[in-house]
Amino acid sequence: MERARRLANKAILRRLVSQTKQNSPSPALYSSSRYVSSLSPYLSCDGNVRSQRNIHGFGSQSRSISIEALKPSDTFPRRHNSATPEEQTKMSEFVGFPNLDSLIDATVPKSIRLNSMKFPKFDEGLTESQMIAHMQDLASKNSVYKSFIGMGYYNTSVPPVILRNIMENPGWYTQYTPYQAEIAQGRLESLLNFQTMVTDLTGLPMSNASLLDEGTAAAEAMAMCNNIQKGKKKTFIIASNCHPQTIDICKTRADGFDLKVVTADLKDFDYSSGDVCGVLVQYPGTEGELLDYGEFVKNAHANGVKVVMASDLLALTVLKPPGEFGVDIVVGSAQRFGVPMGYGGPHAAFLATSQEYKRMMPGRIIGVSVDSSGKPALRMAMQTREQHIRRDKATSNICTAQALLANMAAMFGVYHGPEGLKTIAQRTHGLAATFAAGLKKLGTVDVQDLPFFDTVKITCADSNVIAQEAYKNKMNLRILDKNTITVSFDETTTIEDVDTLFKVFALGKPVPFTAATLAPEVQDVIPSGLVRETPYLTHPIFNSFHTEHDLLRYISKLQSKDLSLCHSMIPLGSCTMKLNATTEMMPVTWPAFADMHPFAPTEQAEGYQEMFKNLGDMLCTVTGFDSFSLQPNAGAAGEYAGLMVIRAYHMARGDHHRNVCIIPVSAHGTNPASAAMCGMKIITVGTDSKGNINIEEVRKAAEANKESLSALMVTYPSTHGVYEEGIDEICKIIHDNGGQVYMDGANMNAQVGLTSPGWIGADVCHLNLHKTFCIPHGGGGPGMGPIGVSTGGLPAPETAQPLGTISAAPWGSALILPISYTYIAMMGSKGLTDASKIAILNANYMAKRLESHYPILFRGVNGTVAHEFIVDLRPLKTTAGIEPEDVAKRLIDYGFHGPTMSWPVPGTLMIEPTESESKAELDRFCDALISIRQEIAEIEKGKGAPHPPQLLMADKWTKPYSREYAAYPAPWLRAAKFWPTTCRVDNVYGDRNLICTLQPAHEEEEKAAATA
């Protein structure tokens, strides 16, 4: 009855989606770019199941040719799923089951088990060569025009040395978030470079290590203003000169905080109500104008209002920095520092502020600390702000960054240095000024009189006529309305492009001059009062690596300090660190995908649109849902979007009062923070002794809040590493009491092909594409968090309201979607199902190998675990004084990244092997943990770890074990050893002495000497 009820009505989300209107001030405003401001596109999941072909062998008198012998040699699943059939049987028998299928039958509850999973397309899986051909076909359907749209997205020249050695380099894109600082010093230094670059250019002393995009960074700044004012002032004013997508995101985000967003012209800002917590302005403005904000900021501060400024890093190399105006927070995007537009992302956004607000900053911050020898070392600072610790009290629900893209942008700054960046900015401005001067000379249109940096605003008789002429020349302009156009210039614009633009705006009339002849007459249009006089990027790092061989060596030096999947497995529970195949990564850097502006006309992106449709269909099949949105550009953004869908459903029914969200303690750590952002009241329920959600607590909480229940947030399998038998009953309890079920997709790697959120009974789920579907973690990002929704049981009346905008680009970080698309299409339905099975097998095999050395904390009803398991180290604290961190640090000496520490249960390690690791690698990791357990039993040798070369080569050695044993605790290390570059990093020192930018070399030496 429950499933029938849920499937009875397919109307809700389709109706919500159909009514998700474009939230721009005017539909004509971005007509040329097909601007989409809502949580769309929702993708249909209809399709015909393709019949499988029967391939018959050819007979002969002597022998027959098998079907297997005729298959292509580059099939993908056998390359990804590491355990061979023989190993699968042996490992299953070791665990106590005759074969893999019997293990799966004992592990996945029968009540939620799927019979099979079939894709409407690519069911058998494409070979790697077929996939490349298919992606080339999609790429050919994209038409990349020269973009002059702007709106925060610009063409950029990605230096090949950065493209090849960072973006395309698995040594950089397969790293995990730098929680283990001792084996992450390389990317930590690069991210510190990024923070230093941002603080120098913005003129504010604190920066985070990146955020998702400029629009969501502005929304985070709005939340900061609300927090600074302790929630007592509920109005946030946004200047009409801000990018429209930024305005829309802030409006969406404000709902959960009960904030009122007012959009107004600067001259109409009104603080008389005394209820304004902050304001947002753009510098330069979205239409190109440069304004002096000095008096504006003074007036805002006089009225107790905080000022947020969205800005452009390239412009700030020549413009007066925001910090000198006195603004409180600066946000923006580093995209034009060598990161492709990629149809919207991923890009590294930034947020800079003063020291006063450092504990309210969202995102990750890299800080300078010292290691146990007293030498400077880097780490992620102030981690106590993060969601897994503070839960609903966290400063933000964002638990990731755009580390890979921040590293690219930082290296762009290092490569060009201050003078190189300034030269790019001056050239860009010079081309814009030459273009404006030429239009004035032509006299066919009017040019805005306000000063500008790179964007020229033009008034004309008919903007569509000019736009069509530009299309003929493969150029995209931004159409504001029927009489207004803007043209934005960038690093890739040529003087020949300017001449072509002259012809476009002349509309067939002869142009009696060229840009080259006109340029010597053109004057700089930036007012003297807005010209930058403050130096920036003065540290030697930004002034030392301006040749390719110098930068190559610097990149290689940093890479050598970091452990990645190039070295060994990364067994982090809940993080699913599977290998990202080269074939999946290849299309990402093809110009047909990388160079597309997110607001280019949709007809120019037919290849992208076809991929979105196919990917959406396959994700619907995987999840059992009816519709998918690809817009959320991180897992946390997906959580937020999914909860907003549920919120919109209740609003559509008139149930505005439904705001209670039940969250088990075993749910993913970001869940409470996401619920708080949606304005929900959180009720926590516990687990039983076996790690399962306490169903009676859920029932009691749901019934007690029946009239106000909005949602349950649940992770499945649970973060305790078990398939809970009562999950379908839990879903029914929530539905019976008027709520909806939100399933966190963090553990989807244990569901694909075996069960699904829609089959289990969930109504909404986000997917971490960077976990289950192979988008690389990139040292701490990028990620994607698309959401799927079951329309069954969610009837929507005509009053259904749109959700609004979730991320700055219509399809989120579209450039990395080809990775998941190729992974799924090459694996096919059987390959994906086998991946889930082997992930479960690998986890059970490791748990069995380790159980006689460490207690395994939770198991299912038949004694098995899911795709991850928890090792209990709490007894060791009593018997040997050993903490999980001690074990994790000693694992570094064995060449491994530590598992997830002390989460979700304090004093434990959570291990997830994934399906892509071989039995040999699993054994190697188990051997390391077993060896460490023996060390603990003998003389507590794990306490001094890790052991970098400088410690081993020191004149004095005071450890109770030999240098040799410290360095080579296992025999395989003599053949290949990954060396940490620091001793154990002092976390407390780094937080008490917070330094988040590069320091002069002599200061670092003095600090190290003083500490020693």
From TrEMBL:
Annotated Glycine dehydrogenase C-terminal domain residues: 835-945
Keyword match Oxidoreductase: yes
Matches recorded under SUPFAM superfamilies: PLP-dependent transferases
Gene Ontology CC, one term: glycine cleavage complex
Key words, A-Z: Mitochondrion, Oxidoreductase, Pyridoxal phosphate, Transit peptide
Co-factor(s): pyridoxal 5'-phosphate
EC code(s) of this entry: 1.4.4.2
Subcellular location: Mitochondrion
NCBIfam families given in the database record: gcvP (TIGR00461)
Family to which this protein belongs: Belongs to the GcvP family.
Official protein name in the record: Glycine cleavage system P protein
Species for this entry: Cynara cardunculus var. scolymus (Globe artichoke)
